[in-house]
Amino acid sequence: MPRRGRVREERRGTTILFKAGRVPATVDEMFSRIFWRSPLLASEAKVFCEELVSREPSGISTKEWKIWIRKRRITVGQFYNMIRGLIGAGIVEKREGCWHISSGFLRELEQFIIIYTSLTNFKHRLS
């Protein structure tokens, strides 16, 4: 009799991968550092996040992706790469079948800064 695989709860980690260089000073620069291989995806990700912010608290339904790619004239693969990059950076999350701006992203960055400054004794410049 064949064995069944164990069903595990999916656990998503957050990985922030920035291209090395100067510190981003604008939103455009931030997205271009996250999507450093594709300027098109950087601009599409910015527009997508702006749309998410404007549609909070309801978010964008995951079923609306076909409408989005038709409206923005991008391919399915480009849309999935954009979403994967935004999820991987921790900026976007899926809750109850809708895309939302991540509620925990800023807390994670703040905690990272606290831990890093305690390790290195550097002073952060956040106000």
Topology summary:
Elements: H1 27-34, H2 39-54, E1 60-61, H3 65-72, H4 76-89, E2 92-95, E3 98-101, H5 105-120
Antiparallel strand pairs: 1-3, 2-3
Structure, explained:
This protein has 127 residues and is mainly α. It has one domain: Arc Repressor Mutant, subunit A. Helix content is 49%, strand content 8%. The chain is built from 5 helices and 3 strands. The chain has helices spanning 27-34, 39-54, 65-72, 76-89, 105-120, and strands at residues 60-61, 92-95, 98-101. Helix 1 crosses helix 2 and helix 2 packs across helix 4. It is globular, with a radius of gyration of 17 Å. The model has no long low-confidence stretch (mean pLDDT 85).
Keywords:
single chain; 127 residues; mainly alpha; Arc Repressor Mutant, subunit A; 3-stranded antiparallel beta sheet
Could you provide a short overview of the structure?
This protein has 127 residues and is mainly alpha-helical. It has helices at 27-34, 39-54, 65-72, 76-89, 105-120; strands spanning 60-61, 92-95, 98-101.
CATH class: Mainly Alpha
Query: Uncertain segments of ≥5 residues (pLDDT<50)?
Result: none
Order of helices and strands: HHEHHEEH
The tally of domains stands at 1
Question: What gyration radius follows from the Cα positions, in whole Å?
Answer: 17 Å
